[in-house]
Amino acid sequence: MISREEIAVLIVEKLTKEKSVLKQLYLKRKNDIGFFYVDDLLPTELANKIFKKFPKLSETKKKKDLREYKYIAYQMDKYDSLLEEVIYAFQEPEVVVIISEICNFSTILPDSNLYAGGLSLMAKSNFLSPHLDNSHDKDMKLWRVLNLLYYVTPNWGKENGGNLELWPNGIKKDPVVIESSFNRLVVMATHQKSWHSVNKVLTDNVRCCVSNYYFSEQPLLQDDNFHITTFRGRPSQKIKDVFLRIDNGLRNAVRKIFKKGIRENPHHYKK
Questions:
Q1: Could you tell me the fold of the domain covering 4-257?
Q2: Which of 36, 46, 154, 267 could hold 25 in an S-S bridge, CB 3.0 to 4.6 Å?
Q3: Tens-digit pLDDT profile for the chain (271 aa)?
């Protein structure tokens, strides 16, 4: 089986080849929501193999409420070892370095705990409402600064839904839609203005994604403040937006009293 170190070499080779273009793409949007994406990240045969090793929906945890509807997996020793290798390939030092160079960061750190990371699966009618990611890591010591999303479902097109949406001008304006294309890596900044979402899946296929976060001792924005994962409704969902605002307020009030929450967030890899 291919190792994380070998996968990391392949990732670095691809990013190095396209480094100047990717850097321009990220810096172009740096003042709102910086992002870049690269297609054909890994050899097609390997990307297909990763997809085929994804667990069945019944083997994952379903998250379904007003905010989101999706399936997640993060206790990686329960699944095929290739999946753990590809996740941690993105945390190999040489991969972290080249992504930091593309995004013009001084120091960023991967997260071996996979806090809010791991595997994401979205089936028909699944969605993720516009939201801001939690500002910190599991231990509330580091700032979340980059979101890495590697998509592996073959023949996935925009018409299938389940695509990443960025809202650089706020959720009252039209989003930038980034297709969740097969073998595509998307890297996006995360801070207190980086609203993003996933539109509803419209097909019977399952959109599979390998997810990682990078952290830093300093926030991306100088005026960034601690915030919980914060959800809003889409422009057409005015009633839903009211309920989500109330929900945000209640959860934020709890976190002001209990800094790490009432209970530990179970979404991390317990090795």
A1: Jelly Rolls (2.60.120)
A2: 36
A3: 899 999 999 999 999 999 999 999 999 999 999 999 999 999 999 999 999 999 999 999 999 999 999 999 999 999 999 999 999 999 999 999 999 999 999 889 999 999 999 999 999 999 999 999 999 988 889 999 999 999 999 999 999 999 999 999 999 899 999 999 999 999 999 999 999 999 999 999 999 999 999 999 999 888 888 888 999 999 999 999 999 999 998 888 776 666 555 556 788 888 7
Rounded to whole angstroms, what are the CA distances from 153 to 99, 172, 177, 182? 23, 30, 17, 5
CA distance 253 to 81: 40
Query: Is-contact 91 118, C-beta < 8 A?
Result: no
* 83 neighbors 53 (Cβ within 8 angstroms): yes
What is the pairing mode between strands 143-151 and 127-132? unpaired
Instruction: Identify the three-state secondary structure at position 96.
Output: helix
d(CA 153, CA 151): 6
